Amino acid sequence: MAFYVPYLLLGLASKRSCGSLVLHARKQFVGISNLPRYHSLHVATSAILNLEELLGRVDGDRELLVELFFVFKSSFPANYQRLKDACRQDDSKQVALEGHMLKGMLLNLSAPRAAAAAAALEQLGTKKELTESPQALSDLLFEAEVLILHMDEYTGELTP
Amino acid sequence: MKILVADDDHLSRRLLEKTLQRAGYEVITVANGSAAAALLCDNDGPRLALLDWEMPEMDGPSVCSAVRKTKDQGYVYMILLTSKGLKTDVVAGLGAGADDYLTKPFDTEELKARLRTGQRILHLEGRLVEAREDLRFKATHDALTSIFNRGVIMDLLGREVSRSRRENIPIAILLCDLDHFKRINDSYGHLIGDDVLKEATRRLLLSVRSYDYVGRFGGEEFLVILNNCPAASTAGRAEEIRRAMSSSPVQTNAGALSITISMGVHQTDNWGSGTVEELLHEVDAALYAAKAAGRNCIKFAKTQSVAVEEPTLPAETAETLS
User: I need a labelling partner for A31 at 20 to 30 A (CA). Which of A130, B30, B155, B230 fits?
Assistant: First the structure.
């Protein structure tokens, strides 16, 4: 997360351009080769968090939306850790299960990019090809970080 | 309506819970398949369920399969929630007993529409079960008095006689006939006669125990099976019934009408290996003897050797003595 903090502190991260800025920062700090393969550098905000779709899913209940963001933010670290452990232990079945669960959660959150990253891990688990899992884990973490940033931004807009 | 949501993902569970509560459902949530199966297999459990495909302990299709295997009362409408997109997965889910499936991320309106479909199916099933039960009741019970009809009471008699012989548990058979019922019908009409029959049935049911059987044997004839009734108490039980019947006049639109019954009684202790038909023939003969003896009294069947003296007394005499 540290790489985009300076942008936020300087107020450079405008509310609508966070995703792009983070990607930009990532390019600056970690180099283009480490970017998730399915990323473009100009990410549409809706690809990270489709608020319109999500608000429709919760019947416009913004309170519930914020609650769901909180649930994700508090449960993701444990989910991610379990995925990471499963990858390290070469437990394909567990990787597929955890990836699948995260994918479902992220799809319900209307977060297609992060869901795709989780789906990539699920696929690796299903195919029992965990050699590429470190990269996939890194991609997922990155997408989750961007997503959380968007969530925080939205939550901040709601609070006076 | 109660609905079960089973999903190991807290976020999806909460989202569904809130969405369904808003749609008017009473939502029960669980986080694994075993808990879902236990609730759905319970006869008082929810009849509508949203099950995630992948869950710890038991996955969604396994829950469907378990419910379909064990549930014999009331249909459960189950929708699988899945982010699996393959047709083979869908086929497997439906094959396991799911009624429908929804892919994640779900669309709220689609979810509600599919649940309404489920409710329609459950409503239809409820009506079919009701109709079946109604038919079953009509096929086994007498339309006027709502007690067992002749076919059922005869089946029960056969079963209880066999059980009595097998387990050496005494039972008594009572064949009761309303005295001068034809006269009531002829004098006051059949509707009044029907009222009398209904009241006689009510009195009969009140004077037996919950594990005894009462059935309408013919027009004004009732067959009573007293289960676990030792010979020593049969006469007393029969007399109680006779008295209950004539305890007070029956209130009808034609005024208060006094009723009495005659009764033929058979007790298992001494009836050997006769068939049910033979037993009935003997008890019928005893009833005929009671009628011949002036009605409103009890006669024991010929082969009966126990406690013959007391019940053959004319009822009025018995009352005087008591």
Answer: A130
